[in-house]
Amino acid sequence: MKKSLMTLFIMCTTFMGFSQSIKEPEFIGAVVAIKNDTSCLPTTKAFGELRSGTSWKYNSWNAISLYVDGNTSECQLPAGTNQFIVRVGNNNNDPNAVLTIFRFDKKRNQRMAVLTLDNSGTIMASKTISDYKIMFEGAKYGESSYIIQANLKPGEYGIVITQPDGVIGDHPIVSCFTVL
C-alpha cells in the first residue's frame, strides 16, 4: 500500500511538471514517448493483424494473436521507466480499460503477442493471456489524453487503443516502440 501511494505521488508530481511544456498529440490515436529532456518522440504506427491458430507454446488449439510486420521499430527508448501521452476521444474512462501495452515476441520478420487462448479438449481452461500485457499507471492529461508510465525491459512493444467495450478491432493501429 505504501509503495503504491508513493508511486502515485511521484506520478502526480511528474505529470504536473509536464503539464506546462508538452502539448497533447494533435490527433486521436496518436501516441508520443516523453524523452528525459521533456521533448516528445512519436511512436511508429503499424497496422496490426489478428490471427487465430494453434499455439504450441500455450497448448492451445485456437489462440488469437496480434501480428505486426517488421522485426523492430524506428522509435527507440531506453530501458526503465518510460512515459507516453496517448490522445483518445474521451479520457473519462480508466486508462487501463481503453489502453493496452503489449510485449511482442519476434517471429520471422514479424512481431507477435498472444491475446487469448482456447484450451478446449485439454486439461487447461480457456483464458485471456496476460504474459504479453504490461501493467502501467495512468492519469488524465490535458483535454482528451492520458499520460501513462510503465517500467519496461529491453524488447519490442506496442500500445493499442481498444474500442469502448474493451475489444480490439479486427485491424488495429499499433503504436510500436523498441526498448534498448
Task: Provide structural commentary.
By secondary structure, the protein is mainly beta. It has one domain (2-179). The chain contains two helices and 14 strands; from the N terminus they run αββββββαββββββββ. A six-stranded antiparallel beta barrel has the order 3-4-8-7-13-14. The two termini are 31 Å apart. The model is unreliable at 5-10 and 12-20 (pLDDT under 50).
**Average pLDDT, to the nearest integer?**
83
**Measured on Cα atoms, how large is the radius of gyration?**
17 Å
Please report the total strand number as a whole number. Answer: 14
Fraction of residues in β-strands: over 45%
* Uncertain segments: 5-10, 12-20
Shape, per Cα inertia axes: globular
Question: Which helices and strands occur, and which strands form pairs?
Answer:
Elements: H1 2-18, E1 31-34, E2 40-42, E3 44-55, E4 60-69, E5 76-77, E6 80-87, H2 95-98, E7 99-107, E8 110-117, E9 127-128, E10 133-134, E11 137-141, E12 145-152, E13 155-161, E14 173-179
Parallel strand pairs: 5-14
Antiparallel strand pairs: 1-2, 1-6, 3-4, 3-14, 4-8, 6-12, 7-8, 7-10, 7-13, 8-9, 11-12, 13-14
